[in-house]
Write a structure and sequence with these properties.
Blueprint: E1 5-13, E2 20-28, E3 31-39, H1 44-65
Antiparallel strand pairs: 1-2, 2-3
């Protein structure tokens, strides 16, 4: 990617339904991306990593379009 990558925020949320969500914001250069995933019971660490990968995946889509 050739740019600085920083996880800005990581949130564990408890929406009204019976599910936990991990939401992250990742800063890549000057662009901010958001990733999220459902947290299976006892899998907080791997869910956080999956949410970061989700955000990075979104950045790759933008790079393919030539706008990132």
């Amino acid at each position: 990617m050739g740019r600085d990558i920083m996880v800005e925020h990581l949130f564990l949320t408890y929406p009204p339904m019976d599910a936990e969500l991990v939401v992250v914001t990742v800063l890549i250069g000057a662009q901010r991306y958001v990733g999220a995933t459902v947290v299976p019971p006892g899998e907080e660490t791997s869910a956080a990593a999956q949410a970061v990968l989700d955000a990075l995946n979104r950045s790759l889509g933008r790079m393919g379009e030539g706008s990132a």
